[in-house]
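Fill in residues.
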């Protein structure tokens, strides 16, 4: 009875050896690639903490087994080419993965399982790999340098694990890399110097780590970039003006870092941009009027910086904008009347600046506004009449200004101080 935990694996081993011998004796000299691959995968499965995983009941060894019809396995010419075990409730490590027994493997999708332990250096033996997705597990320790041997890799998703240390220099050898996701780990240190080699990147997700040092200036040469998420790190230095070359860029998230200097006016050349989020940095200088060229922008978050000067009237060109947040800066002057053209605007946050003058009547045209947060400025005169008509507005905050007559006080839960 007591021997059950030991007896089970040894039964598997005996069974495996028996099957392998059967294969060898029955088909001498013609052991097919797929039978070897089947044995290797079966052996790996038997190392799982849940080898009886109900999704993997097709993974059984029989005489002359081929794994090609097994759950999640696809073959080309009888050899395993693709392994898709995403979201399959596997509880295991990668230590016993048959890295040296699957020579034709090109696609590995093992996202969202309970893989723990390190990524073994033998990962580098999967030399034909094009696609590797190990996101959403519990992998820890450093990304092995051997990742650099995977020279054909186009997609690498290691996000959502507990990987630490810095991004290995060897990543620069992955010149075909198109989609790199290292987000939501514990990675630190600067981007390696070789990062500039990854010229074919379209998607770069490194958010929510502790990466430090500058944004690699070479990023401005990555002509195919479509989405850049570098937010929630410890990046410092300036935003490179060369980012303005990235005419395919649709998302640029750099928020919650330690970036300083001004917003380069070249950002206004990113005419494909849908979302620009630079909040919670240490950016200074004024908001470049060129941002008014970003006509596809729906989200512009520049709050919690030290931006000065006035709000450029050109922002009124951003007809698709639904979320404009400029709070907690040092902005002065009046709110441009052109903002009244932003007919899709739902969120207007100008809280805690040094804005003055009347709030333009034209803002009363913004009938989709849900929140208009104007508090802690030096606005004078009256509120726009339109704002008193209710609409969908749920939150109008104007306290700590110098607004005189507030006729529609009762519509909202205001806390108005008129000093
Ligand atoms: C793996 O399978 C899932 C679910 O069917 C699918 O969404 C995903 O695209 C597949 N991955 C690859 C690399 O084919
Ligand atoms: C990574 O984390 C492990 C513990 O999980 C620790 O032993 C190791 O020193 C860490 N490595 C780095 C480079 O921080
Ligand atoms: C670069 O990526 C694109 C897809 O974005 C792909 O079509 C092209 O073949 C890649 N080029 C190289 C040299 O990897
Ligand atoms: C990019 O922006 C800068 C500054 O706004 C401008 O001088 C330059 O002509 C623009 N370049 C291109 C290629 O549009
Ligand atoms: C703006 O968005 C529209 C609709 O998604 C798209 O057709 C158009 O190409 C975009 N413009 C630019 C300059 O990317
Ligand atoms: C922000 O910038 C100011 C002025 O350049 C500097 O004095 C300050 O130390 C910076 N703060 C942080 C947190 O980087
Ligand atoms: C934007 O607003 C200004 C001032 O309210 C107005 O003169 C201008 O015609 C508007 N532009 C567009 C494109 O609606
Ligand atoms: C916008 O508001 C102004 C002043 O309240 C008004 O004169 C104008 O007709 C409005 N424009 C539109 C397009 O509703
Ligand atoms: C209105 O917005 C202010 C500022 O963001 C916030 O503190 C307050 O909780 C909001 N009130 C409601 C009712 O949403
Ligand atoms: C066959 C093969 O390529 N084996 C290699 C697998 O990976 C380990 C660790 O990198 C190497 O030592 C082997 O040579």
């Amino acid at each position: 009875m007591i021997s059950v935990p030991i007896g089970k694996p040894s039964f598997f081993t005996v069974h495996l050896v028996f099957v392998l011998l059967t294969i060898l004796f029955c088909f001498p000299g013609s052991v097919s690639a797929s039978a070897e691959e089947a044995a290797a995968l079966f052996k790996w499965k038997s190392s799982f903490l849940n080898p009886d995983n109900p999704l993997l009941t097709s993974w059984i060894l029989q005489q002359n087994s081929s794994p090609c019809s097994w759950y999640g396995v696809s073959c080309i010419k009888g050899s395993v080419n693709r392994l898709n075990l995403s979201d399959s409730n596997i509880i295991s490590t990668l230590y016993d993965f048959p890295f040296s027994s699957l020579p034709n493997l090109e696609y590995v999708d093992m996202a969202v399982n309970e893989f723990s332990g390190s990524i073994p250096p033998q990962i580098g033996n999967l030399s034909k790999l094009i696609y590797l997705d190990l996101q959403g597990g519990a992998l820890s320790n450093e990304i092995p340098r051997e990742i650099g041997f995977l020279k054909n890799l186009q997609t690498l998703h290691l996000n959502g694990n507990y990987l630490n240390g810095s991004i290995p220099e060897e990543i620069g050898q992955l010149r075909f890399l198109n989609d790199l996701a290292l987000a939501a780990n514990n990675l630190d240190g600067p981007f390696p110097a070789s990062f500039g080699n990854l010229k074919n990147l379209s998607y770069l997700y490194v958010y929510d780590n502790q990466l430090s040092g500058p944004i690699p200036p070479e990023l401005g040469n990555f002509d195919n970039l479509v989405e850049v998420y570098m937010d929630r790190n410890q990046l410092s230095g300036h935003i490179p003006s060369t980012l303005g070359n990235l005419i395919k860029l649709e998302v640029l998230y750099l928020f919650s870092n330690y970036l300083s200097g001004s917003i380069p006016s070249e950002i206004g050349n990113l005419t494909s941009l849908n979302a620009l989020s630079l909040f919670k940095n240490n950016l200074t200088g004024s908001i470049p009027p060129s941002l008014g060229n970003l006509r596809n922008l729906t989200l512009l978050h520049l709050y919690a910086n030290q931006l000065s000067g006035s709000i450029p009237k050109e922002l009124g060109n951003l007809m698709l904008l639904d979320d404009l947040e400029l709070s907690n800066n040092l902005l002065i002057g009046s709110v441009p009347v052109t903002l009244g053209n932003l007919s899709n605007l739902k969120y207007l946050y100008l809280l805690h600046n040094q804005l003055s003058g009347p709030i333009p009547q034209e803002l009363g045209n913004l009938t989709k506004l849900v929140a208009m947060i104007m508090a802690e400025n030096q606005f004078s005169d009256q509120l726009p009449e339109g704002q008193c008509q209710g609409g969908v507005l749920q939150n109008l905050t104007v306290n700590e200004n110098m607004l005189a007559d507030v006729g529609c006080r009762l519509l909202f839960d205001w806390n108005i101080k008129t000093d």
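Residues 140-142, 164-165 surround 2-acetamido-2-deoxy-beta-D-glucopyranose (ligand 2) (CB under 6 Å).
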